[in-house]
TrEMBL record, chain B:
Family, as annotated: Belongs to the complex I subunit 1 family.
Organism (species): Spirilliplanes yamanashiensis
Compartment(s) of residence: Cell membrane; Membrane
Major localisation: membrane
Membrane topology: Multi-pass membrane protein
Domain of life: Bacteria
Gene behind this protein: nuoH_3
Biological process terms in GO annotation: aerobic respiration
Coiled-coil segments on the chain, per record: none
Protein's name in the database: NADH-quinone oxidoreductase subunit H
A Pfam family annotated for this UniProt entry: NADHdh
InterPro entries, A to Z: NADH_UbQ_OxRdtase_su1/FPO
TrEMBL record, chain C:
Enzyme Commission code: 7.1.1.-
Transmembrane segments: 55-79, 86-105
The name this protein goes by in its record: NADH-quinone oxidoreductase subunit
InterPro entries linked: NADH_UbQ/plastoQ_OxRdtase_su3, NDAH_ubi_oxred_su3_sf
Cited Pfam families: Oxidored_q4
Name of the top EC class for this enzyme: translocase
Length: 538, 313, 113
């Protein structure tokens, strides 16, 4: 038994980490990434390969919702840690491995039954931890509460996970399975247990807490009237739907006129969700508009018609209230629509979101795209929440950071690693380190600049026109090379930000990989949200 | 040429040996790759084992309305095909299965990989995975022909498609000397079929891990394992087909073959990790306009050498 | 043939063994049910759609070549016996196919974005 335990600990000793950084936490992210590199803990590309979810800073409400969705997609054993203070990072990461190992020991099947028990006993241990930590610092307390909750079991998180889909599952995917129902029950329960924990009520937990509530609600549990949560839960619901389905009030919706138009009229906030027929569908005429509106509508049917109704909604097999829907829904999710292709054919158009959490892209950036195959036919960029104030200041380190992100997207892991290293050491207090880092920065910049394979694979793509003065615009390579200059210290100038709309224009018609690279190669404008009226008319 | 496969009674251990060698090759590839990415020689060879154990610990996943059967078939097929391709790779001077068409078998396993990888991408009903699956098909269209031409070049020179014959035909001169283009092409296409290094677009970070973006637990383990076995098998096959297999002075044949295989893996990793991932829509053009004509010319050169009596036997 | 069948069996056993080990040891036996990853957003539509593979022209080109390759394997074995005639015939045929490749390339079918 001891042997297997040790083997578990050994196996989980280098967890793969998914980092989600809240607005303005760039310096924190750099410290975290340098610590992860030092420990050679790999960065995860998707929740499926994540062991440890690190949430940095305080994510806004939309990002919190996204984090909860992601968390629900992480397989067990898993651990979520919130980091707000860079001095805590090393200690926190040290605790991650034993906590993960503990998480691996308690299979989730036992959780629903064991719930009250586990809740009581482990909450106590969580208390202890919280107690110890609270003496030190607020963030420590928060984190410790997280520990407790995670070490205790995963039901809560499982719950959140499902909550993440709950909106979707509403039309009956899998909810008819009894064990699922049980699981959901467990979740709701755990959700509450979680909220009761000391320290969890801390402000930093708001997103988290509200989500637990969401989980409980969306699965059709009778709402437990608890004043303090009423206020939290409902906004969370709104946010979820909102986050998932169009952002009329987000900056950058003007990307391409018709997209903005369309999405601004999606019934993102409708309580009934079925009066969508008046949403003008861009391409398919009125009879298809219901399709376009469907996912949003469906979510909100479940959410807003009262939680006890949620089961009815799936009882209806996904067609409840969708009389105008011609078989477009399978397992609660719409099928792709068709639209004209550039070759003049009618082909499937799939709506996807890229971001807010995608490797190499700044967290919080969302690209709402329509794709035909791997070609993006309509694109719309926006920021979730307010992402202003993200820059750490020093242009050289910022350039190296952007370069590292770009190289990550380009799949050049060794160069990305060196760029990160240079970035991290440039901030070191030791001047010797800084000298080495400057050398490394120059070496990386030279390598990227001179790479023929990069020049060949990226040559001639990604022209972004910006400004209204008719500037010809530059290509991916031009922008990358400018970053290289700044990174090498040859160019002291900062990076010019490009408004999201200008970037979005360049994305339409590009292949998906190119789209990813274009966005990663641009210093994106983080302007304040455009007033709604303007957004729809641009 | 006599059938060089082991006698019936020795086949039990031989089969196990092939599987063990396959796993060892996968470990070698994964360790070398890890070393190129993070450094730390010793640790790099521990990490693949650790990752494997961790994936065994990890919960599996399913998604909304997945194609469960095909998804599962794909995940299982990747390592199984990789191990099957090893049946015709000489281990200790003999192959597990010796036929008159060993090269075709090796090629066929790689061709079946098209289906397997695409299924892994199709199964989870997820955008990134699906995109990765189709990227792999596009990549297959580009690299299949150069791979076949380089294999055929070897067959022409040896006058046989049997791996052991080909190794024997290199007793005097390694084929890499007269067919460098075929050798390089073989290694490049092998990397492309293992969607590794610069050809990792089907599992690229730009599509969040692509084909494997929804895989976790043992499913992911099988997928990654199969990929590493494929690359290792290709390195061992490359060493046998172009670098004379077990031929060499002083040391016993199997040791030579092992050393050559390690050298090929190291070279592959050293070169492959030096460049970014190449976009498939660019590489398809190059594959057809450069690699295909180049390998055809290579075959022509070898055929002319053959009928002029350059190759003995 | 029995050798390769037994290899298939052993490989299958290995796979089954890994599944069994995972079943016995994994943190949770039941697979996690989750929506596919869409960067933290909920998917709006099923990804399994009619995917527009823009490189379809390449598939036709590939088929033409691939059929030819099937004949090239046996050719490789007999070319030494057949002599120069076989070489001329095969490469004459390949040259024609390569002209086709050049044509397709000029038509722009090898680039699709």
């Amino acid at each position: 038994m001891d042997l297997t335990r040790r083997l578990r600990g050994w196996a989980l000793a280098r967890p793969r980490v998914l980092v989600v950084d809240g607005a303005g936490s760039d310096p924190l992210r750099w410290t975290v990434e340098s610590e992860l590199d030092r420990r050679s803990w790999p960065l995860a590309q998707s929740p499926a390969e994540t062991d440890l979810l690190l949430v940095l800073g305080t994510p806004g409400s939309h990002l919190s919702a996204a984090v909860d969705v992601l968390w629900g997609q992480v397989p067990q054993p898993r651990l979520r840690l919130d980091v707000t203070d860079e001095h805590q990072i090393a200690g926190l990461l040290d605790t991650a491995v034993p906590l993960l190992a503990r998480a691996a020991e308690s299979p989730d099947e036992t959780v629903p039954q064991a719930m009250p028990d586990a809740d009581g006993s482990s909450a106590a241990s969580a208390d202890d931890t919280a107690h110890d930590a609270m003496g030190k610092e607020r963030s420590a307390a928060m984190t410790a509460a997280h520990h407790g909750d995670d070490g205790m079991d995963h039901a809560g998180h499982e719950g959140m996970g499902h909550a993440g889909h709950a909106g979707h599952d509403v039309s009956g995917h899998g909810n008819h399975e009894p064990q699922n129902g049980m699981e959901h029950g467990g979740m709701g329960h755990e959700g509450m247990g979680h909220e009761r924990q000391p320290g969890a009520a801390d402000a930093g937990h708001a997103g988290h807490t509200s989500h637990a509530g969401h989980g409980a609600g969306a699965h059709g549990r009778p709402e437990v009237p608890r004043g303090e949560h009423e206020g939290v839960v409902h906004p969370a619901h709104e946010d979820m739907g909102h986050a998932a389905h169009g952002h009329s009030d987000q900056p950058g919706t003007t990307a391409t006129g018709h997209v903005a138009d369309d999405s601004s009229k999606l019934p993102t906030h409708r309580t009934t969700g079925h009066d969508a027929a008046d949403a003008p569908s861009r391409r398919h005429g009125p009879e298809h508009s219901e399709h376009a509106a469907h996912p949003a509508g469906q979510d909100h049917a479940g959410h807003s018609s009262g939680h006890a109704m949620a089961h009815d909604a799936h009882g209806g097999g996904g067609h409840a209230g969708h009389e105008m829907h011609h078989g477009g829904t399978v397992a609660g999710l719409a099928m792709a629509q068709t639209g004209p292709d550039r070759d003049g054919l009618q082909l499937d158009v799939l709506r996807v979101s890229l971001g807010p959490v995608l490797p190499g892209w700044p967290t919080g950036l969302v690209l709402r795209a329509e794709v035909q195959g791997d070609v993006v036919v309509a694109a719309q960029l926006s920021w979730l929440d307010d992402r202003r104030g993200g820059n750490a200041g020093e242009p050289r380190r910022t350039a190296l950071d952007r370069l590292a992100s770009f190289l990550t997207v380009a799949g050049w892991i060794t160069a990305a690693r060196d760029a990160r290293r240079a970035r991290d050491s440039l901030g070191s207090p030791d001047s010797g380190h800084r000298g080495e880092a400057a050398e490394l920065a120059r070496a990386v910049a030279r390598r990227v600049r001179r790479s023929r394979s990069l020049a060949w694979t990226l040559g001639g793509v990604g022209r972004v026109q910006h400004g209204t003065n008719g500037v010809a615009g530059d290509e991916i390579l031009d922008r990358i090379r400018r970053w290289c200059d700044v990174a090498a210290g040859d160019d002291a100038g900062g990076l010019t930000a490009v408004p999201l709309d200008d970037v979005a224009v360049a994305l339409t018609g590009a292949e998906l990989g190119t789209v990813r690279l274009i966005v990663a190669s641009v210093e994106l404008g983080r302007a304040a949200p455009v007033p709604k009226a303007e957004a729809t008319h641009a | 040429m006599p059938d060089m496969s082991p006698p019936e009674e020795a086949q039990g251990p031989a089969v196990l040996l092939v599987v063990v060698v396959g796993l060892a090759l996968a470990w070698l590839v994964a360790g070398a790759d890890r070393f190129a990415v993070t450094g730390g020689p010793l640790r790099s060879f521990v990490e693949p084992v650790r990752s494997g154990v961790r994936l065994l610990l990890e919960q599996r996943r399913t998604t909304l309305a997945p194609d469960r059967l095909l998804w599962r078939v794909g995940c299982v097929a990747v390592p199984v095909l990789a191990l099957l391709s090893l049946a015709v790779v000489p281990i200790g001077g003999q192959t597990l299965w010796s036929t008159s068409a060993d090269l075709v078998w090796f090629n066929a396993m790689e061709a079946l990989l098209w289906a397997a990888v695409w299924l892994v991408g199709w199964g989870p009903n997820a955008f990134h995975a699906l995109t990765g699956g189709y990227r792999f098909l596009a990549q297959g269209l580009a690299y299949e022909l150069p791979l076949m031409f380089s294999l055929i070049t070897v067959g022409v020179a040896a006058g046989s498609l049997r791996t052991t014959d080909i190794v024997a035909a290199q007793a005097d001169l390694w084929f890499v000397v007269t067919m460098p283009v075929a050798f390089v092409t073989f290694m490049v296409t092998a990397a492309a079929f293992a969607f590794w290094g610069p050809f990792a677009a089907p599992v690229g970070p730009d599509i969040a891990g692509g084909v494997r973006s929804e895989l976790s637990g043992v499913d992911r383990l099988l997928f990654e394992l199969g990929r590493a076995v494929f690359l290792g098998a290709a390195a061992a096959m490359g060493a046998a087909l172009f670098l004379g297999g077990g031929s060499g002075p002083w040391l016993p044949g199997p040791v030579w073959h092992l050393l050559k295989t390690i050298a090929v893996v190291v070279a592959l990793v050293a070169v492959g990790r030096r460049v970014p991932v190449l976009r498939p829509d660019r590489t398809v053009e190059v594959a057809w306009m450069v690699l295909v004509p180049a390998t055809v010319l290579q075959t022509l050169v070898v055929a002319v050498l053959l009928i002029s009596g350059f190759y003995p036997g | 043939m029995p050798a390769v069948l037994s290899l298939l069996a052993v490989a299958g056993t290995l796979v089954l063994g890994l599944y069994a080990a995972s079943f016995a040891w994994a943190a949770a036996r039941r697979p996690a049910v989750s929506l596919p990853f869409e960067s933290g957003m909920l998917p709006q539509q099923h990804a399994a759609s009619r995917y527009h593979a823009r490189w379809y022209a390449v598939t036709i080109l590939f088929l033409a070549f691939d059929m030819e390759m099937i004949f090239m394997y046996p050719w490789a074995v007999v070319v030494a016996d057949m002599g120069a005639g076989a070489v001329v015939e095969m490469f004459g045929f390949l040259a024609i196919l390569l002209v086709g490749v050049v044509y397709v390339w000029r038509e722009g079918a090898l680039r699709w974005t």
